[in-house]
Each structure stands twice: as structure tokens, then as C-alpha cells.
Amino acid sequence: MLRQSGMRGPPEEAGRIIQTLADAGVFRMRARLVGTAAYQVYGPMLGVRLPRSSLQTQDLDIAQFTAISVAITKDERTPPLLEILQKSDSSFRSVPNSRKDAAATTYANASGFRVEILTESRSPEREAPTNLPAIGTHAQPLRLMDFLIRDEVRAAVLYGAGILVNVPSPERYALHKLILAQRRQANPAKINKDVEQAEVLLGVLVSQNASALPEAWHEAFGRGPKWQRLLATGLSVVEAKVRDQVLRVAGTIRSIVPGLNLHFTDARPSYDLDRDIVAFPAQDSGGERVLCAISREALADHFGTVGRSDDERIEAFRRHRSEIERMAREVYLHNAVPPDGTVLVKASDVQDLLRRSTGRKPRGPSSRTRVSRKPVRP
């Protein structure tokens, strides 16, 4: 039913190999599908159709924690992985490691389809392959992998009657791809694919109010300055709407995103009677339109609006436009991202915003009028 409704399963060759691995008990050993093979199952899981371009793959990535693999007893372990793969295609062979003395971590068949085995690494240096005795193979340790494959979820691959596998949670997968795209240097095609997959998943997760996304974000962000820089830089290359939604659910401000700023034009302001605001347009650094506004109360309390007509309020805005735009920029960069995206300068925020944007003491009743207090005679 899912396939007939337009949900896509893996190509025939990949599906056949995943089925063979599942039948042999590889996923029962808590191995996980990662990479695009895992991404393909998120569409049916989340109830969305994923872009076809981000589903294309010519390989299969499998990961397992070293500690889990070592802890599984000998009588529960699977046959050697190469032996399992050869049941699906007898042409599978080990691919020699780049280090001649290192064990193989990749397998390929005659058509060029590759199966790569991965595990976590906590060392900054490239490590030698690690033995995964539970599934009879060695694996290449990779940085970031421990974040990705923690807290796996069960999912169905749409092949045959359905194959039950383990995959990373979609929240961890999306953030991992966001970070990974910033670490790749030599392969623009993979960078674009990483960004697309991250952007699509994040857009779905925030629209579905996924409660696990803030938790995954804070775990990643809490891993230190390098992770923070990679996450923030990753957000700078996704669609502005998705970026702002992620920042909002994570409780994070826009100023963490490098290069982000707000630019104003001389476009005519307008008064919105329903919301009691003077609205004026702006653009972010990527050219996306941003609606800015200042409330009627803020104009009246701090910018000398005497009359009550719309024209008088707009005139007050024009007289103080540069000052109000500086405050709007402060709100945009340093205040919490609102659900509707409007950058609103409120009366209660003006004094603090003036201090932050200009560095001077704000105007107000206390600075305009000095009250002389004589000492009371006893």
C-alpha cells in the first residue's frame, strides 16, 4: 500500500542485499543502516514523499557500536559478513584497505555495488579498522558516528513484504548530515546531497513538532565549540524558513549563524490596523524578505506620536526610521525567533534595544523630566 501510494523503496539490488543481511540476523545484532539507505525509510516513517534526487545511491553503509559487537556472545553471532553477502551475490569480494596491513572494511560485487562497514571513533586521528565480532567483519572508525547511531529506531524497508531494520533517529540523521556537509571538502556532489537530505528532514520534523529534535540539537551543541560552529554554519546553507524553524524549536537565536544580517530599503512603510503596527520590509543576507514592524505603543511611548491617525504614526516612524531599523536588526539577530517570523519592536523592549543598538541611554520620561526633591525637615 505504501509503495502504491508513491513511497519509494530501494533499488532491486540494494533491496536484495538488505533482505539477505536481515535474514542472517545482522540487524538483530543491533547493526544499523546509515547513509542514504537509512534516509529512504524516513519517508514512510514520517508520512512524506522525499525528493528523488536525495534517494539515489550506489552503496550501502552499515554501522555498529564496538562495545555492543564485543558484548554479544559467540553462539549468537552471525556468520562472517562476506559469506552473508555472497549469498545475495557470489561476486562479492573484500576491497583492500588503503593501508596494506589493515583488514578490509568494504565489500564490492562485480557491478560495483559497495557495502561499507563503520563504527564510532573518539580519537582525532584516523584509526585502524576495528573488529566487530558479532557480524564477522572489521569496520572503519569515523568521527561523529557515535552521535549518529545512538538511540536507533526500528523501521521498515519497502522491499518485498517489508524488511525490519535499525536506523538512526531522523533527528540525529538530519543534524549529522548538517555537520557532515561542512566537513567534506573534495566532493561537491556529496555536500549538496547532505544539505538536501538535512534540509528536507529538518523541514518535516519542525512541521510535525518533533519533540526529540531540541534534545538532539542540545546534545550536539553541547559537545563544544567545533560542533557549535559546524551546526551554525550548516544552518547558514539551508532554506531560511527551515533555518528559523529549527532555531525556534531549539530555543536558539539567529546571531549564532555566521554571516546572517538584516538589510533595509527605502520601501514605503504601512500601518496594519488589525495588529496595530507600522510594518516595513527588510531582507536577510540571502535576499529573503523579512517583515519588520514596530507597535503603536512603542511609537507613542518612545518616539513622540502625538496624533492617532495612521499617517501621523507613519510620519513618526519616518522621523526615527534609522533608529527603529537598528532596533529591528537587534531583535532579528538576538531575540527568540517568533512563530510567524515577524520582527516586532515592542514597547517593553525599546529601552533595552536602544541601549544595545546605540550604546546610549534611552529616552523616556525619566530622562526628559527631572524632579527636584527637597529634603524633608524633621
Question: In summary, what is this structure?
Answer:
The protein is α+β, with helices and mostly antiparallel strands and 378 residues long.
Terminal CA distance reads 91 Å
Low-confidence stretches: 364-378
| Average pLDDT, all residues | 88
Helicity range of the residues? 40-55%
Largest sheet: 7 strands, mixed
Structural class: alpha+beta
The fraction of residues assigned to DSSP E strands is: 15-25%
Number of helices: 15
Radius of gyration, in angstroms, nearest whole number: 28 Å
Order of helices and strands: HEHEHHEEEEEHEEHHHHHEEEEHHHEHH
Which outline best applies?
A: elongated
Number of strands: 14
Considering the chains and any ligands shown, give keywords for the structure.
378 residues, alpha+beta, 14 strands, elongated, disordered C terminus
Written description of the protein model:
This protein is of the alpha+beta class. It has helices spanning 12-23, 36-46, 66-71, 81-88, 145-149, 170-183, 188-207, 212-221, 225-235, 240-250, 296-302, 310-319, 321-334, 350-358, 365-368, and strands at residues 32-34, 59-63, 93-95, 106-108, 114-120, 130-132, 137-142, 153-157, 163-167, 262-264, 270-272, 277-284, 289-295, 343-345. Strands 1, 2, 3, 4, 5, 6 and 7 form a 7-stranded mixed sheet that branches. The termini are far apart.
Describe the SSE topology.
Blueprint: H1 12-23, E1 32-34, H2 36-46, E2 59-63, H3 66-71, H4 81-88, E3 93-95, E4 106-108, E5 114-120, E6 130-132, E7 137-142, H5 145-149, E8 153-157, E9 163-167, H6 170-183, H7 188-207, H8 212-221, H9 225-235, H10 240-250, E10 262-264, E11 270-272, E12 277-284, E13 289-295, H11 296-302, H12 310-319, H13 321-334, E14 343-345, H14 350-358, H15 365-368
